[in-house]
Design brief:
Distance between the termini: 15 Å
Strand content: under 5%
Number of domains: 1
Length: about 230
């Protein structure tokens, strides 16, 4: 995950990416990436945009990358963020673009309590068709019941996870300290102390039990939710 993405957003993107593209950043729709002349992550944005036209025709969708960017979405992101066509659609850029999509859909408002979990869930489902809506509502094509894709009824999309799992993730995301991970800092070198005469040593006391931080607890719960080994 790109280090500029805040912890909560990184957790949510990890969850979404695991559903949208379990095979990772090099995925294109229908898992046809083996037919590419070179890996998606080594293609420039200009090359991807050209190729997506053919993917729509040949595979049924232009979706590309870990977060399955549609061609129209990618065109909008490039214009909005002032990206260069020569930039490669590598893993870090995909993460940053995914984070921008989260913000478009109300991530900051959700984290500050301006919108509730159900509303944010709906907005996410509007962006990623594999996610379920969290309440009965009107979708893009018909009335929906909780748990369906926002685009149910188009003969193409369906939800690929349960509303309960999405709700659990959103609860953990909101509890996460929302700051980008910081690189480890080198510990200061100790200043040599002036030698002192030896003193009688007191009996050793039991070492205190290390306390896990809130972030570590949240990450462990998140790992268990995704069926991974806790960090």
């Amino acid at each position: 995950m790109d280090r500029t993405v805040p912890t909560g957003a990184a957790m949510l993107l990890d969850f979404i990416g695991g559903i949208e593209a379990p095979n990772g950043y090099g995925t294109i729709f229908a898992n046809k990436q083996s037919k590419l002349a070179k890996p998606l992550t080594e293609m420039t944005l200009d090359e991807v945009l050209v190729a997506q036209k053919a993917w729509s025709k040949n595979h049924g969708s232009s979706a590309a990358g870990r977060y399955q960017f549609m061609r129209a979405t990618l065109v909008g992101l490039i214009a909005e963020l002032g990206l260069r066509g020569s930039q490669k659609l590598d893993a870090d850029l995909q993460d940053r673009l995914g984070y921008h999509l989260l913000k478009r859909r109300g991530y900051d408002d959700y984290m500050t309590g301006k919108i509730d979990r159900t509303e944010f869930g709906k907005r996410l489902a509007q962006e990623w068709a594999s996610l379920p809506v969290l309440a009965n509502m009107q979708g893009a094509h018909r009335k929906l019941t909780r748990g369906q894709s926002y685009y149910a009824g188009d003969a193409l999309n369906k939800s690929l996870t349960s509303p309960e799992k999405l709700e659990t993730v959103l609860v953990l995301v909101r509890k996460a300290p929302d700051a980008p991970p910081q690189p480890a800092q080198e510990a200061p070198k100790p200043v040599p102390a002036t030698p002192e005469p030896p003193k009688a040593q007191p009996a050793p006391t039991p070492a205190p039990v290390a306390k896990r931080s809130l972030l570590q607890i949240i990450l462990d719960l998140f790992a268990k939710l995704l069926g991974r080994k806790p960090v």
